[in-house]
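LOG
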Amino acid sequence: MADNNSFILNPHEPSKPLACITFTNVTKLLPNNYPNWKQQVEALLDGYHLLQYPDGSFPAPSEMILTAPTSSTPTPSETTPTTASLPVTTQNPAYQTWRRQDRLIYGALLTTLSNEVASLVSQTKTSHDLWILLKNTYAKASRKPFLGRCQWCNIKGHVLSQCKTFQ
């Protein structure tokens, strides 16, 4: 299911390498196979402890954080003596780690989509956005109960693939 997986260096938090995963044997998502696709993808992501990104249980940390001024912070001028103790806004390393890992997951998920489905998710930005859009689009349609009638000829007891009227 997942091959050639590796980890890459995380310059923002070196003790937390980023997982690079590829889904080579996952069934491509089509409009009619969402439950099967979801089961395969969830199993792999959960196995790598990455499911919390697309399912939304690990939301993005704040992009910026306030930190104490360091010795490299310029000393205040005589006209602004109180700025020496003010915190400095900097990029949050945890956000940078989250964002990069999410983009790697997002890219891997895109490789599991058929062209028809991929065109629907072009406006999504995160793996969670993509996951929710696919769920809202295909989960309900895939759960329709079998009504016991051919949708083509309305005869009870057989399915469209066996319908002589359709063939």
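LOG (cont.) second protein
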Amino acid sequence: MIAHQAIPVRSAASAGRAKLVVRCHGNGASSGTLQVGQKVKVVSSIKVYHAPKHPEGIDLNGMEGTLIKDVTHYKGKILSANFPFEVEFHLPSNEKPTKFKVHLGEDEIQPL
């Protein structure tokens, strides 16, 4: 029989730090309401700086695009990506139309 000695441990609260409670739900997969190839609309104010010909950035709120990839599943496994939906947008131009892609979360887009 092995004897254990009790060692006093300071709690986070006594060390001057607030306690942290994390509640998780779900398994990292999307809800299934969005399908690849579906038209979607951005419902949040999101500014991106990688859009062609817009070095000052562009706000995506209200823009419509096409869902081209859902990265919550990979080789049969469920992944918990922060922004699992890859959406392609087309910017009108006097020259040829320009395209760019953005990774978005499920709460930032809605199906059309």
